[in-house]
Amino acid sequence: MVKEIDMASNYQIHSRKFYNAYYSQLVGATITKFELVKEDFEGKLLPTFEAKKGKDIFYLTLSMDEEGNGPGFMFGLQHPSEKQIEAAPATIYKEEVDKEGNVINVTVIKD
User: What is the pTM assigned to this prediction?
Assistant: First the structure.
C-alpha cells in the first residue's frame, strides 16, 4: 500500500520546527545594548540588539523578513542545523481573548 504524503503539511511542520529551533537560541541570552543601525540600501534605521549568552556575543537585527521584504523576522541567530530543526517542537499556541483584549485561554496545538 502506498501512503500519499501531504507536502504542504510537511512544509508547514518543517517551518514550525525551523522557527522553534531558530528562536530558541535566545533562551538564556541577555540583551545588553540596543541601537538603530542604518542599513546600506535605502538608509533605513533597523532596530538592532546586542545580546550575550555565555561567552558568545551576537547582534539581533529586526528586519521585514529573511530577505527584508516583509514584517517580523529577526536576523543574527545561527541557522539551526537539520538535526536541531528535526528535534525542535512544531508547537503552535492559539490565544483566545476577551473583548478588552485580555488572554482568557491558551490552547497548545502540536503536530
Answer: 0.54
